[in-house]
């Protein structure tokens, strides 16, 4: 018996072809994403290296409340100086731009989605498998339609990062809100609070640290996308790694790779410190 | 009889998807167990009816799984009733839409929870002011009211602390303050003191009674602790398996249990705290001093096989107490006036005195206590034997 191969690839292609006719819609998204990217990059380009370093140190000093902050500040200072010394400064700010803009978009979309999941069983049942799909589908696969819809450059890179990095924020928001003890919800109800009051005065404040942990993961996942995003023209440290791979230049590859690690550690510690600060 | 604040009529809750079918079976008199087997639905509360009067502490009493928590939650509709009515000052709560329900919850009903349910991210003061904030009261005014409520429950100087910095008992004071600050006339207290250790629980019960003396709220109090129910309850509703067994005053529950379940339920209770002098007293043999002389008194004693007799006046006021020997002497001397041999240094007590407070003295004093009301009327006497019988759970017989 001969069963023909299922033309799944053809279906998806024709689906994507059909979608590309909505140029206006995709241009709108492109422009919106581009505006966010440009604004962040503009700020970074405006700041001289020394001022940027001071601002990062000041932010770390302010958010880090525990005793180990001086060690971390020295690490930050040395790390950023190393990146500057290696000539990766502009690449680093581009990487930061990619990470921050995709995380920002992921949070703006992700938190409401998470809230919706926590409030509605139906939404949860529908969104959960989509999140699994977004996270497990190999990230390279997004790149192809991303280029088809958004061309080459930062924007498709941001979009692919958003898709890959958003699930933790959605999941953790859902988790944080669902974990608010039932008797507190009952107490809020028994005193006659509205759904909105319950959300803003009780559920979100109590879910804050869980949501922050999700945001932290989102940023780390976005950072892990920088090399992949560089393949479709998103500039930054990822581009340097990608080029080094192409030239079989292990030294440059590692140098750029270490710069990514430094950025990752700084972002991770600062967002975690924000989280700790959230407790009274 | 005072005004009825809360009236519950045929309130029923059935959990599960086939509630409608289960309800039909329930109406046909099918048992809870069979309904569960047939439909998979659980009968939480089965046609409960009762009314709570203004200013009363009404205790709903039952073991876990009896449906008492479901019942109290239907009163403010944290749980939606399957059928039946809850009338609050005549207004049917079950018919309200969401907005009206919120208003009723803000204005009329406040709840105190077993595990305190304080908001961990808010200070003690903010917690106490929570209900007022929902009402839209401005910050200064609600803080002032919340502080007043906190003082009332005996919490001074903890305003800026967070709940997790307080002990369990203090947390529940905050819970109580949050409910009181709201000025809601009806308090729903769901096992409010059950999570506290015994010593603190007693303090809180006393506090509640003290506050109630000043505030005269209408309180519906859930408990699984019969001693607690007997201590604070004006009336007690005993339920099991979702059905109401008995609604009565504490003493009546102890002396006249409505069915076998209640009887078994009250077996272990410390009766001395609940029973009062008036429940354990016996009929006092007395003679009226204006009508009876020594001879009548002596004959009465002989007829009843007693060695002394109480003497009262026309209006049954206590006058004194006479020994058989003294009366016999009097007759021998030919005197007709009992007054000369009357003793007045008899131990006496008020009818509302708990037996617990009397036991010690009764065991020490050979002559019986006489029970006198505020106007000095002789109501009865307390014999050691009948105290023991009452503690053992037997009815006091004449």
From TrEMBL, chain A:
One of its GO terms (biological process) is choline transport. Residues 92-271 form the ABC transmembrane type-1 domain. GO terms for cellular component: ATP-binding cassette (ABC) transporter complex. Belongs to the binding-protein-dependent transport system permease family. Keywords: Cell membrane, Membrane, Transmembrane, Transmembrane helix, Transport. This is Glycine betaine carnitine ABC transporter, membrane-spanning subunit(ProW). Pfam families: BPD_transp_1. It is a multi-pass membrane protein. It comes from Loigolactobacillus rennini DSM 20253. GO terms for molecular function: amine transmembrane transporter activity; carnitine transmembrane transporter activity. It is found in: Cell membrane; Membrane. The chain crosses the membrane at residues 39-63, 70-89, 95-118, 139-166, 219-238, 250-267.
Automatic annotation (TrEMBL), chain B:
CDD domains: ABC_Pro_Gly_Betaine (cd03294). GO terms for biological process: amino acid transport; glycine betaine transport; response to osmotic stress. It is found in: Cell inner membrane. GO terms for cellular component: plasma membrane. Signal peptide: none annotated. Its main location: membrane. It is a peripheral membrane protein. One of its GO terms (molecular function) is ABC-type quaternary ammonium compound transporting activity. It comes from the Bacteria. Pfam families: ABC_tran, CBS. Keywords: Amino-acid transport, ATP-binding, CBS domain, Cell inner membrane, Cell membrane, Membrane, Nucleotide-binding, Transport. It catalyses: a quaternary ammonium(out) + ATP + H2O = a quaternary ammonium(in) + ADP + phosphate + H(+). Residues 280-338, 342-398 form the CBS domain. Belongs to the ABC transporter superfamily. The complex is probably composed of two ATP-binding proteins, two transmembrane proteins and a solute-binding protein. PANTHER family: GLYCINE BETAINE/PROLINE BETAINE TRANSPORT SYSTEM ATP-BINDING PROTEIN PROV, GLYCINE BETAINE_PROLINE BETAINE TRANSPORT SYSTEM ATP-BINDING PROTEIN PROV. This is Quaternary amine transport ATP-binding protein.
């Amino acid at each position: 018996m001969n069963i023909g191969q299922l033309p799944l690839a053809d279906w998806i292609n024709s689906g994507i072809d059909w979608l590309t006719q909505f140029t206006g819609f995709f241009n709108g998204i492109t422009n919106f994403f581009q505006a966010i990217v440009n604004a962040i990059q503009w700020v970074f380009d405006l700041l001289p290296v020394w001022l940027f370093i001071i601002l990062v140190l000041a932010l770390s000093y302010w958010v880090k409340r525990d005793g180990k902050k001086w060690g971390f500040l020295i690490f930050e200072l040395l790390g950023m100086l190393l990146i500057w010394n290696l000539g990766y400064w502009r690449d680093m700010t581009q990487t930061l731009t990619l990470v921050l803009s995709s995380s920002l978009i992921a949070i703006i979309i992700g938190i409401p989605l998470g809230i919706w999941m926590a409030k509605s069983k139906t939404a949860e049942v529908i969104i959960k498998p989509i999140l699994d799909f977004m996270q497990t589908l190999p990230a390279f696969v997004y790149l192809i339609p991303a280029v088809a819809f958004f061309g080459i450059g930062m924007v498709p890179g941001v979009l692919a990062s958003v898709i890959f990095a958003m699930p933790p924020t959605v999941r953790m928001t859902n988790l944080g809100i669902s974990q608010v003890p039932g008797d507190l919800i009952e107490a809020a109800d028994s005193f006659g609070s509205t759904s909105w009051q319950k959300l803003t005065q009780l559920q979100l404040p109590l879910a804050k640290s869980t949501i922050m942990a999700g945001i932290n993961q989102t940023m780390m996942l976005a950072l892990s996308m920088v090399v992949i995003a560089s393949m479709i023209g998103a500039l930054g440290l990822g581009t340097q790694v990608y080029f080094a791979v192409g030239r079989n230049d292990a030294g440059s590859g590692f140098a750029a790779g270490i710069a990514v690690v430094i950025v990752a550690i700084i972002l991770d510690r600062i967002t975690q410190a924000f989280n700790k600060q959230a407790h009274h | 009889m005072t005004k009825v604040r809360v009236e519950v009529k045929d309130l029923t809750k059935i959990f599960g998807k086939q509630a409608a079918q289960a309800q039909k079976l329930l109406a046909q008199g099918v048992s809870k167990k069979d309904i569960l087997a047939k439909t998979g639905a659980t009968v939480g509360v089965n046609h409960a009816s009762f009314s709570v009067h203004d200013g009363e502490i009404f205790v709903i009493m039952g073991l876990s799984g009896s449906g008492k928590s479901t019942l109290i939650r239907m009163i403010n509709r944290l749980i939606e009733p399957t059928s039946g009515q809850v009338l609050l000052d005549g207004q049917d709560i079950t018919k309200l839409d969401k907005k009206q329900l919120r208003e009723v919850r803000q204005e009329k009903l406040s709840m105190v929870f077993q595990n305190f349910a304080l908001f961990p991210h808010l200070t003690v003061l903010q917690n106490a002011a929570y209900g007022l904030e929902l009402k839209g009261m401005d910050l200064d005014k609600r803080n002032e009211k919340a502080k007043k409520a906190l003082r009332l429950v005996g919490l001074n100087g903890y305003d800026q602390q967070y709940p997790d910095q307080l002990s369990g008992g203090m947390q529940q004071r905050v819970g109580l303050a949050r409910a009181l600050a709201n000025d809601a006339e009806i308090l729903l207290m769901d096992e409010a003191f059950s999570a506290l250790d015994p010593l603190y629980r007693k303090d809180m019960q006393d506090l509640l009674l003290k506050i109630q003396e000043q505030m005269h709220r209408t309180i519906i109090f859930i408990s699984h602790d019969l001693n607690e129910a007997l201590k604070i309850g004006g009336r007690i509703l005993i339920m099991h398996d979702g059905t109401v067994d008995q609604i009565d005053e504490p003493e009546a529950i102890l002396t006249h249990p409505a069915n076998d379940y209640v009887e078994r339920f009250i077996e272990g209770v410390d009766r001395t705290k609940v029973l009062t002098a008036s429940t354990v007293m016996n009929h006092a043999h007395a003679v009226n001093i204006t009508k009876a002389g020594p001879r009548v008194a002596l004959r009465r004693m002989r007829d009843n096989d007693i060695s002394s007799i109480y003497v009262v006046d026309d209006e049954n006021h206590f006058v004194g107490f006479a020994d058989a020997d003294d009366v016999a002497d009097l007759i021998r001397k030919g005197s007709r006036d009992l007054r000369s041999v009357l003793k007045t240094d008899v131990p006496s007590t008020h009818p509302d005195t708990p037996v617990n407070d009397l036991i010690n003295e009764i065991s020490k004093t050979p002559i019986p206590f006489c029970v006198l009301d505020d106007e000095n009327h002789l109501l009865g006497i307390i014999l050691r034997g009948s105290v023991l019988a009452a503690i053992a759970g037997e009815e006091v017989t004449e």
